[in-house]
Design a protein that fits this description.
- By secondary structure, the chain is of the alpha/beta class.
- The chain has three domains: about 90 residues, 3-Layer(aba) Sandwich (Rossmann fold); about 200 residues, UDP-N-acetylmuramoyl-L-alanine:D-glutamate ligase, CATH 3.40.1190.10; about 130 residues, Mur ligase, C-terminal domain (Protein-Tyrosine Phosphatase, Chain A, Alpha-Beta Complex), CATH 3.90.190.
- It contains 16 helices and 20 strands.
- The chain has a nine-stranded mixed β-sheet with strand order 7-8-6-9-10-11-12-13-14, sandwiched between helices.
- Helix 3 links the parallel strand 4 and strand 5.
- Helix 5 crosses helix 11 and helix 5 crosses helix 12.
- The radius of gyration is 23 Å and the shape is globular.
- It holds the Pfam family Mur_ligase_M.
Length: about 450
């Protein structure tokens, strides 16, 4: 960890706990700051707050006092999930107090170079794939950010010969100031989180923070097939590495139906990538490009690409049984994600769909439904999705209450050679606390089928 002195004897407010808030508070305390922690959870039920109090930090729980900033804080480090409409955050901005997320702290203390990976979709798969490739290539990677361990906790322990592979959301990036990854990856940009950012423009600006401070010694890997991403990439001072899945690029990384190309020359066969779908080829190209920039042996890339079965709940291959392939895509909580999953397969599909009813239309899925020959619906949107499936000409439509029942019914209507795909196009909160719970129960139900 770099020995920085900028926080010594400075008053710093950590707003919101959970993993990131606790890690930020503990790091700031080690750096000599006078740390105050403010969390909405009552103290008597707040084990994190109790532990921080024992370490000598000032703790205020159960409320957010409107006059809190009168204590003279010089920095506010907030939990990424806390919106900028929060009264204390708004007050800090009006007073000119910097408002950061813990990612900024990670950058300030890290002795290791950082790779920052962002985008509306594909972040987790790209991050995990790149980490595995670098690990296979003996590059001593560490994984951090929106996946795995809190970034500042990883950075605190990182050495100069490590590289920190960091998944970054727009929420995290919006709270950065000097953050400057050596390699930035911007997978794509679609409309999302407008309730948090207010407009698509503000959302895009937050994503741009992954490269805003980069210079000519750094690299930006970006989606050349999206005009909006390319327009923001043009503002970056980093060396630009575009990727494309629609045309072969003379510079950067690209593909056609047969091969992956690096600077216009064949690098490897496209079918080396085990993950299904065009979106996963794009994720793989991002990981390959970053690995190339770090001089990773191609053998390491090819080995990982050929054996990587996917991240849990993200078009994750579960098993093959009685000629059916089972995939867990529980993370597909919107139609955009389900479109990507449906387009990944050429085989006939039995689709498990439905969940929390947010009132959104399923029409965006229509052009991707011809390969679906049966649907099993559940959750609040069961009847709406059933009507949509019927309008797509699908005759086999089953209804299930829970995912276990859905798996049994999906198998019953399937044929040898089918893909049985959980890709709900809806959030899970009507029945399950998290999409991970839904996915885990799907996997267990598939395992139970085989017994």
């Amino acid at each position: 960890m770099k020995k920085i002195t900028m926080f010594e004897h400075k008053k710093v407010l950590v707003l919101g706990l959970a993993k990131s808030g606790v890690a930020a508070a503990e790091l700031l305390h080690k750096l000599g700051a006078f740390v105050t922690v403010n969390d909405s959870k009552p103290f008597e039920d707040n084990d994190d707050a109790k532990r921080l109090l024992e370490q000598g930090m000032h703790v205020i729980c159960g409320r957010h006092p409107e006059d809190l900033l009168d204590e003279g804080f010089e920095v506010v480090v907030k939990n990424p999930g806390i919106p900028y409409s929060n009264i204390i955050v708004k007050d800090a901005i009006e007073r000119g107090i910097p408002v950061w997320t813990e990612v900024e702290l990670a950058y300030l203390v890290s002795e290791a170079p950082m790779i920052g990976i962002t985008g509306s979709n594909g972040k987790t798969t790209t991050t995990t794939l790149l980490f595995n490739i670098l690990n296979e290539g003996n590059k001593k990677p560490l994984i951090a950010g929106n996946i795995g361990t809190v970034a500042c906790g990883v950075a605190e322990k990182a050495q100069q010969d490590n590289v920190i592979v960091t998944e970054l959301s727009s929420f995290q990036l919006m709270g950065t100031n000097e953050f400057k990854p050596h390699i930035a990856i911007w997978t794509n940009l679609f409309e999302a989180h407008i309730d948090y950012h207010g407009t698509m423009e503000e959302y895009a600006k937050a994503k741009f923070n992954v490269t805003r401070n980069q210079d000519e010694q750094d690299f930006l890997i970006y989606n050349a097939d999206q005009e909006i991403v390319s327009s923001y990439a043009a503002k970056s001072k980093a060396q630009k590495i575009p990727f494309s899945s629609t045309r072969i690029l003379e510079q950067g990384i690209s593909c056609d139906a047969d091969n992956i190309y690096w600077n216009g020359e064949v690098l490897m066969a496209r079918d080396m990538i085990a993950l299904p779908g065009k979106h996963n080829v794009e994720n793989a190209m991002c990981a390959i490009a970053a690995a190339k920039l770090l001089d990773t042996p191609q053998q390491a890339m090819e080995h990982v690409l050929a054996t990587f079965a996917g991240v849990e709940h993200r078009t994750q291959f579960v098993t093959t049984w009685n000629g059916r392939k089972f995939y867990n895509d529980s993370k597909a909580t919107n139609t955009l994600a389900t479109r990507s999953a449906l387009s990944a397969f050429k085989q006939p599909i039995v689709l498990l769909a439905g969940g929390l009813d947010r009132g959104h239309s399923f029409e965006e899925l229509r052009e991707f439904m011809p390969n679906v020959h049966a649907v099993v619906v559940s959750g609040e949107t069961a009847e709406r999705f059933a009507e949509f499936a019927k309008s797509c000409g699908i005759e086999t439509i089953e209804r299930a209450e829970w995912i276990e029942d859905a798996v049994e019914k999906a198998y019953a209507v399937s044929n040898e050679g089918d893909v049985i795909l959980l890709s709900p196009a809806c959030a899970s909160w009507d029945q399950y606390s998290r999409f991970e719970v839904r996915g885990e129960r799907f996997v267990k139900a598939v395992e139970a089928l085989q017994q």
